[in-house]
Write a structure and sequence with these properties.
Low-confidence stretches: 405-409
CATH superfamily of the largest domain: Dihydrodipicolinate Reductase, domain 2
CATH class of the largest domain: Alpha Beta
Structural class: alpha/beta
Helix content: 25-40%
Strand order of the largest sheet: 11-10-7-8-9-17-13-15-14
Largest sheet: 9 strands, mixed
CATH topology of the largest domain: Dihydrodipicolinate Reductase, domain 2
Radius of gyration: 23 Å
Number of helices: 15
Bound molecules: L-homoserine
Number of strands: 17
CATH architecture of the largest domain: 2-Layer Sandwich
Mean pLDDT: 95
Strand content: 15-25%
Distance between the termini: 55 Å
Length: about 400
């Protein structure tokens, strides 16, 4: 029988306990032995909970228990999850986590520590919740040179943008509704400013391209500047505004970006609504592949954590080999990436042409007299920004995002 512990009995931690109990027989069949929870670390008590008696407030009850071989870390944040994880790995216990903050900040070091002690530090649940995207990059697509990773990796912002598009809500009202329904946190900055998606694309891209990407170096824009009128323009262009987290290999290197982009209905990511997540991965042999599912939530995220726990039990005494060098990757500036841009401005088409060169798909909307929207030609972002600086009357602008192969088509 494999004995495990859970640190942090919140939404995901409780989901792990529930999943292991609910699927006990299937897990035993697949692992060859039972996987049971021996201890739960939390500051709180849980009277009436089926796991009530397993709760401890002492980390050492887990650290010093030689029967416990795998520990689930679902505490979130860096303190005390970082020192706890480090000590557990050094004590020869594998750790499985949903904590993207910790993985993005100290994942490289913790993986090294795990390797030195012949155990595993696995983090499937840190990106895309229940979507097994990390396994895809670590196993299924290992014969590929990955050329691009693009995804909707944050459920909160996708819910807000979907509700703005489908119900005509303003950003503030959509956020309030998301908070009321429990989809957005009381302090939603990490989500709406794009930092959550930034951490996730840094983790996925590090795995995809084999070198470490510092999450803080990924240029990031959130969705707070998106307004109802922008969404009406997007609709008129048969587009949606989505917060895309993306990275792409070019001849000279790799760039990454998190930003709200206008994507056309030909892009399958436009069909990803509400709190759902999806990731597209393009390999040089396989072409474009896509993975879709619940990016958050108790049982979906717990499912990913449990998959990692099972992998650790199956690989007792050995570190599962994955391609992830400790070498840092310097990202190319996103300024050099060419694409068309959507611009919304006051004035007339002649002003727009003078400022941006040739323009297309001019849109004028009822109730928004005195302004219009249009697409520019394809140009490097640097050139666009130079033009933008000189242009007068610009109200807002977006990158027109596409998968690379569609741009070539
Ligand atoms: N806040 C995150 C989201 C939770 O909205 O996607 C899952 O990582």
């Amino acid at each position: 029988m494999a004995k495990i512990a859970i640190m942090g009995y919140g939404t995901v931690g409780a989901g792990v306990y529930k999943t292991l109990a609910m699927n006990k027989d299937a897990i035993k069949r697949r692992v060859g032995e039972e996987v049971t929870v021996k201890r739960i670390l939390d500051l709180r008590e849980f009277p009436g909970d089926p796991a009530e008696k397993l709760v401890t407030h002492e980390f050492t009850d887990i650290l010093n228990d030689t029967e416990i071989s795998v520990v689930v870390e679902t505490m979130g944040g860096l303190k005390p999850s970082y020192p706890f994880t480090k000590q557990l790995l050094e004590a020869g216990k594998s750790v499985c986590t949903s904590n993207k903050e910790l993985v993005a900040a100290h994942g490289v070091e913790l993986r090294e520590t795990a390797r030195e002690h012949h155990v595993n530090y696995l983090f499937e649940a840190s990106c895309g919740g229940g979507i097994p995207i990390i396994r895809v990059l670590n196993t299924a697509l290992t014969a590929e040179e990955i050329e691009e990773v693009t995804g909707i990796l944050n459920g909160t912002t996708n819910y807000i943008l979907t509700s703005m598009a489908e119900e005509g809500k303003e950003f503030g009202d959509a956020l309030k509704e998301a908070q009321e329904k429990g989809y957005a946190e009381l302090h939603p900055e990490a989500d709406v400013e794009g930092h959550d998606a930034r951490r996730k694309i840094a983790i996925l891209s590090s795995l995809a391209y084999g070198k470490h990407i510092n999450w803080e170096e990924v240029p990031t824009e959130g969705i707070t500047k998106v307004d109802k009128a922008d969404i009406r323009y997007a609709k008129a262009l048969d587009c949606k505004i989505k917060l895309l987290a993306t990275s792409r290999r070019e001849e000279k290197g790799i760039w990454a970006l998190v930003a709200p982009m206008m994507i056309g209905s030909e892009n399958p990511l436009t069909a990803v609504g509400g709190v759902m997540n999806a990731v597209m991965v393009k390999g040089n042999a396989v072409g474009t592949t896509m993975y879709y599912g619940s990016g958050a939530g108790s049982l979906p995220t717990a499912s990913a954590v449990c998959g990692d726990v099972i992998d650790c039990v199956k690989h007792k005494g050995m570190t599962i080999r994955t391609e992830y060098s400790t070498e840092n990757l310097t990202l190319l500036p996103v300024n050099e990436v060419p694409r068309p841009f959507f611009v919304r401005m006051k004035g007339n088409e002649e002003d727009a042409k003078k400022a941006f060169g040739s323009i297309s798909q001019v849109i004028r909307l009822e109730g928004l007299e005195g302004e219009f929207g249009f697409l520019t030609e394809m140009m490097p972002e640097k050139t666009f920004r130079e033009k933008l600086e000189k242009a007068e009357g610009v109200i807002n602008w977006y990158r027109r995002g596409k998968m690379e192969e569609e741009q070539e088509a």
